[in-house]
Write a structure and sequence with these properties.
By secondary structure, the protein is mainly alpha-helical. The protein is built from 8 helices and 2 strands; from the N terminus they run αααββααααα.
Amino acid sequence: MNTVEGLPQLLNKFKDLGTQGERLASAIVNSTADQIVAQAKANAPADLGKIRQGIVKEQIDAFQVAIAATAPESAFQEFGTGGKVEVPEEMADVASSFQGQSGGNMADFILALVGWIARHGITGAKNETPEQIAWAMAKVILRDGLRPQPFLYPAFVQYSARLLPTLQTGFQELLSSKQG
């Protein structure tokens, strides 16, 4: 996704402090990643919980963590669809990898909408069946798109902004303890 500017240089300073420095930096990076995951899950649409359940953290190495939203519809929720797509500039590469992808076939789309209609207690005005309502909704969605409901990017922005200051404070405290 994105990295925090100045982070690689600061992490190298932690490495220079040996094992204790590496452990502290790793703990701060992991704690921040956990906060991003928790906030992204809180931000994510809740309907069936698939998006929330699909937000995962993967440890790449001591100082690198990847956070991903693995549910197939995650990108559509994060960035929107059709004419309602909104992509932050720094996320353009990520979003472009989903451009033109579909979330499945029409039958699955209608079935998902019928389930959503039932869960939300939606009824038709003229004794329409849930399937008829779903078809009408599908036409509007395909024509107009869905508005974005960003969940992961806002969490990343919120907590990654705190990462560098937290690391700098931790570094200074560790350095002071080693000198004192």
